[in-house]
Write a structure and sequence with these properties.
This protein is of the alpha/beta class. The protein has helices spanning 45-55, 70-81, 115-124, 139-151, 166-177, 203-206, 210-226, 321-336, 344-360, and strands at residues 3-6, 36-41, 60-66, 88-89, 105-108, 128-131, 156-158, 183-193, 232-238, 253-259, 265-271, 273-284, 287-292, 301-305, 312-315. The strands form 2 sheets. The chain has a 9-stranded mixed β-sheet. Bound molecules: nicotinamide-adenine-dinucleotide (NAD).
């Protein structure tokens, strides 16, 4: 079990019958034992991690590649993971994947504005879809993706790693136990100092700036923890770097507040201008929690703040850990016909909030 805990108070102990939060199973997939074959679409940084995770799994396997560089990246990964050359597709030949019976699902690791097209094409080809966050660049696109998967009777899951991470699951369990009392407020942030000349810095491919890419983490987590949708927003965006050319198209930094119908408020920030470690603070009448390293691939760390019960627990594991959890979770959804707990609707709600935040900042995107 990848959870290291010291002095966990009685209220924080899971009931004996509780399902242990995600750990990669490394066991055969339910429903027949055959691993689910995934096609990785877009062979960039995140797909590389996902493919490494699948290589460690007994239930999820990379069986095809979709790339604009079949002779270089395609051949490299095919050799690495034992994929036949006939299962290397380009963006033009992708639809032929319908005939590849070894492939049951795709993993969409493309720039944000390409998620819609490849999710819909995958559903039309009869494949289930695990799509990276943000689900798309507008709520309208999300709706089209949900419809295509529903009409094709295919499952759609969004890659919200946090929902599968043991430490974040523990935070949710503590909140739901009532140990913090009624919640009052959240604070959080996430950001990094973005290198120039990448698709993230363009409206065309990114859809927006750091809010789309990294602000979405605390936004999504708070919605998930509260099981409530934010209804009021204030926001301010700013760009200080006018010399490098990085921010001609998207904001450098954006801070926002959101209020939920319950009255709970959140004050959050995100940036492409500084290496801002991800964190989330959760404040209730009876106590507060803090998650540091919150959105990194490794080591989310949950502690209690101030007095009261002492909590100190962190996720162990390699950088592939979250991706293996996700791949194996979706595999079991496919084998058992279960709707994933991070379905397309989860991405749609985030995009609706993102649209409202950009509107509040005076830079509407939809
Ligand atoms: P990346 O730039 O490393 O990879 C993008 C891939 O898309 C590359 O292989 C590139 O060749 C391909 N591509 C195809 N057409 C392209 C085009 N027109 N322009 C640019 N690239 C094109 O990006 P990444 O960091 O892997 O991000 C991919 C997706 O994964 C994004 O949606 C991002 O938000 C998401 N992501 C998720 C996490 C996570 O932790 N869940 C982390 C990073 C990125």
């Amino acid at each position: 079990m990848a959870l290291a805990a010291t002095r966990v108070p009685s209220f924080a102990q899971p009931p004996a019958s509780a399902e242990k939060p995600g750990s990669p199973t490394s066991e055969p997939a339910r429903g027949g034992g055959k691993p689910v074959g995934y096609a990785a679409i877009g062979l960039g940084a995140i797909s590389d991690l996902f493919m490494q995770a699948c290589a460690k799994s007994q239930t999820a396997k990379i069986g095809a590649l979709v790339t604009g560089h079949p002779e270089t990246k395609g051949k490299h990964y095919a050799e690495l993971y034992g994929i036949p050359e006939s299962s290397i597709y380009t963006y033009d030949t992708f639809d032929r994947i319908a005939d590849n019976k070894d492939i049951e699902a795709v993993y969409v690791g493309l720039p944000n504005s390409m998620h819609r097209e490849y999710t819909i094409r995958a559903a039309h080809a009869g494949k289930h879809v695990l799509c990276e966050k943000p689900m798309a660049i507008s709520s309208g696109e999300c709706e089209a993706m949900i419809s295509a998967c529903r009409n094709g009777n295919r499952l759609l899951m969004i890659g919200y790693r946090v929902h599968y991470d043991p430490t974040h699951l523990e935070a949710k369990r503590i909140i739901q136990s009532g140990a913090l009392g009624p919640l009052q407020a959240f604070e959080g942030a996430f950001g990094f100092n973005a290198a120039p000349n990448q698709w993230r810095l363009t409206r065309q491919y990114g859809g927006g700036g750091p809010l789309m890419d990294v602000g979405i983490y605390p936004l999504n987590e708070i919605r998930w923890l509260l099981e409530e949708e934010p209804s009021e927003f204030t926001a301010v965006s700013t760009t200080r770097d006018h010399s490098s050319g990085r921010f001609a198209d998207v904001e450098q930094t954006l801070n926002w507040t959101m209020k939920f119908p319950s009255g709970i408020v959140a004050a959050l920030g995100c940036t492409y201008g500084a290496d801002m470690p991800g964190f989330l603070r959760i404040h209730g009448d009876k106590g507060s929690l803090e998650i540091t390293n919150a959105y990194s691939y490794q080591g989310p760390h949950l502690v209690s703040l101030g007095g009261g019960a002492h909590i100190d627990t962190a996720t162990q594991g390699e950088a592939t850990f979250h991706f293996q959890l996700e791949a194996e979770y979706f595999t079991n959804c496919i084998r058992t016909g279960t709707v994933p707990k991070t379905p397309g609707e989860e991405g749609l709600h985030d995009l609706r909030a993102i649209e409202a935040i950009y509107k509040a900042a005076g830079t509407p995107i939809a």
